[in-house]
Amino acid sequence: MLDRDYSKTPNPRQVAGFFVCEGVGRFNYPMKKVSLHLLFIYINILAGQVDYNSQIQMIFNSNCTGCHGGNHNSGLDLRSYESVMAGSNSGAVIVPYNHANSLLWQKINSGAMPPGNNPDLASEQVDLIAQWIDEGALENPALGTYNNAQIPKEYILNQNYPNPFNPVTTLRYDLPEDANVNITIYDMMGRVVKTLINDQQSAGYRFTQWNATNNAGSPVPAGLYLYMIQAGEFRQTRKMVLLK
Length: 244
Ligand code: HEC
What we know:
The chain is an alpha+beta fold. It folds into 3 domains: 12-47, no CATH class; 52-141, no CATH class; 156-242, Immunoglobulin-like. Helices cover 25% and strands 21% of the residues. It contains 6 helices and 7 strands. The protein has helices at residues 12-16, 29-47, 52-63, 81-86, 103-109, 123-134; strands at 156-157, 169-175, 179-186, 192-201, 204-210, 223-231, 234-242. Strands 4-3-6-7 form a 4-stranded antiparallel beta sheet, with no helix packed on it. Strand 6 (223-231) and strand 7 form a beta hairpin. Helix 3 (52-63) crosses helix 6. The longest helix has 19 residues, at 29-47. It is elongated. The N and C termini lie far apart (58 Å). Heme C is lined by residues 63-64, 66-68, 74-76, 88-90, 93, 103-104, 107-108, 113-115, 118, 121. Heme C (HEC) binds next to helix 5.
């Protein structure tokens, strides 16, 4: 049986502990949820990234879901990450990495949404949503996926963004099936600079980031670099430019 006696004072290891790993059966449920949530926020702050659940969903909940709650005639449902990414009657409302072309940003930036007498979003909220879109509209950077609603049809290695960059860039790739994935960065002489990923991964829209350091952790000089993905039989190489 699970230990569900919430009246007990939580023991200090549970309170202190994002990193405490106890047998699942013994873990106090609410504590576990809170700890995981804090851990994701903590990772996101370290990575300087917007967290969908703790930052974006809250804006929608306070300002939008009263109308965009599933049965709205625009077809746009803002109650969860999956439904936002699924789009509306007009199609996708978010173009990852491109806030200016995203209908969602256009509507809140112009003040068209929320409509009528409803107060506009604060400019910080509009900017936060722009930043979230420009980071790829990521749900959970810790898991390295950004569109959990769908599985891609083919292998793709996307152009990194931003490019040129300094010092961090995001590399997106699509896996239509589970695969053994290797993503490695080379210099123009063909020497290995950094192995970013060498792992079995599940199908999905995935991303990783490079912070312009080599395998030894030292910053690399400005210049042109190549990145190559190998996943199953698939191989693709692209170029990127590090500016300093
Ligand atoms: C009072 C109800 C109401 C609220 C609150 C509201 N909307 Fe809307 N929204 C609408 C209506 C009605 C439409 C369809 C007509 C239109 O596009 O003007 C719409 C359309 C949209 C569209 C275009 C969808 C498409 O398929 O064309 C977007 C994007 C959008 N809303 C985003 C938002 C966001 C983000 C918020 C919160 C910040 C929000 N809305 C708050 C009523 C609302």
